[in-house]
Amino acid sequence: MARILFAHPYTRYSKAYSKTPPLGLGYLASVCRNDGHEVTIVDCLVRDIDPEGYKRHIEEFKPDVVGISAMTVFYPESREMAEMAKKLGAVVVMGGPHPSAMPEAVLKETHTDYAVIGEGEYAFRDLMRALYGSGTGATKVPADPTRISEVMGIAYKDKDGTIHVNPRYPLIKNLDDLPFPAWDLMDPRTYPQIPHGTFTRRFPAAPITTTRGCPFDCTFCASKVVWTRKLRRRSPANVVGELELLAKTYGVKEVHFEDDNFTCVTKHAKEVCQLIIDRGLDIAWNLPNGLRIDTLDEDLLRLMKKAGCFMFGLGLESADQGVLDGAKKELDIKKVPDLVKLINKVGIETQAFFIMGLPGETRSTVQKTVDFALKNNFTTAKFHNLIPLPGTDVYERLPDEEKNKVRWEDAHAFGSAKMKTAALSSEELTELAQKAYRRFYFRPKVLLRTLAQVRPSQIPFMVKSFLYILRGGKDRKTA
């Protein structure tokens, strides 16, 4: 059996990112514990653990394996963490969107022994079985490293340094087969009160997913790199069972559904809402990752409101139809204003998401988007610059010379590894995004409404985060 330390990376840009329990690592931890391994989770981002602190955790736990989560925005730090874990004698496994999109590059560039590609629970489990065996029940098997070539969903280097990429593991057909995440290793009560840079209504708050995959094919989105475009759903009973566990065991009063699109299947969304009501669960909930506004109707909205929904994000991206069509968004922007009025009528708050720098973007299309954000009654808004994430169409369409110029160290919300367009440089797009934030939030009505939502304990984080955005991602000492 193995001792496994799962690590969520630290980052130099901690003010810019969500601080929520890492669900992916939580699922991996539960699956591995069920197989007899000893597991811990080190969330460097939330605990403000620096490289030396991460090193101490490894030295104290003495893991056989260190599993590192690697989104592209955290990849430079993940690379550093892999090197440190390797120097301390651990087998290093890296998973997440970046290794899923670029497994060969990860194995060449880092001290990673194995990369997990795509949906990771069973691929990682089978890798551990090959390396260390399994010690529980009917699944008890001896270790047999010669079976590495048969483990689906991984990439690895053999003893000669040759890289092998095995076939992907089949998607998990029944998500109810997965155990709940290891909540005892990432207690929601110990996490910040502003997990997504927005304000909780109640605390403690915890994330949860009800689906995996999104059937749409937006050119800028890397979700399909891990989950593919096949939509799978947990049963409403399974979802609400986890909600009850969170409420009763950890006192959770607010939930954030992290689905790529919770309302994609109306019937499923309604069943989840109705079961929350029928079970008498007193929870507030939010959909911070956003949903497609064109999946909503008044019946669904009213049921969501009754079940405790107070806010959701809206992935709108642009107010220019040509830009949207070029991004394969499949959204008619003309329908949005009436739907926003309907949402406001029902009494649910909205956070609009816009992306600046999609192909075809000009100053005129940016102006149209900002004017649209100001004209419609969104509660809050975010204006992101487009980052060419590996595995997305916008990245794959870049000429090789442009791909080679991308520095992952700069691939964060305010870095220079952002898309430029024929009409606008990345620096101009960053400046336009900052101006959009100022125009949106410095209106008296919006500013007062935002301040009214803030608890005293949340004020320091809010001020630091907002100043960070307005400075373009620079701390005061470097501004």
Radius of gyration: 22 Å
The CATH topology annotation of the largest domain reads as: pyruvate-formate lyase- activating enzyme
Q: Helical percent range?
A: 25-40%
> Poorly predicted ranges (pLDDT <50, ≥5 residues)?
475-479
- Order of strands across the biggest sheet? 2-1-3-4-5-6-7
Protein structure class:
alpha/beta
Defining key terms:
single chain, 479 residues, alpha/beta, Rossmann fold, pyruvate-formate lyase- activating enzyme, 2 domains, six-stranded parallel beta sheet, 19 helices, 16% strand, globular
What features would you describe in this structure?
The protein is of the alpha/beta class. The chain has two domains: 3-165, 3-Layer(aba) Sandwich (Rossmann fold); 194-478, pyruvate-formate lyase- activating enzyme (Alpha-Beta Horseshoe), CATH 3.80.30.20. Helices cover 38% and strands 16% of the residues. It is built from 19 helices and 15 strands. It has helices at 23-34, 44-47, 51-61, 75-87, 97-101, 103-109, 121-132, 223-227, 236-250, 266-278, 298-306, 321-326, 336-346, 363-375, 393-396, 400-405, 426-441, 444-452, 459-470; strands at residues 3-8, 38-43, 65-69, 91-95, 114-116, 154-157, 163-165, 205-208, 211-212, 232-233, 254-257, 284-291, 309-317, 349-356, 380-385. The strands form three sheets. The protein has a seven-stranded mixed beta sheet, sandwiched between helices. A six-stranded parallel beta sheet has the order 8-11-12-13-14-15. It has a two-stranded antiparallel sheet with strand order 9-10. Helix 1 (23-34) crosses helix 7 (121-132) and helix 9 (236-250) crosses helix 10. The chain is globular. The model is unreliable at 475-479 (pLDDT under 50).
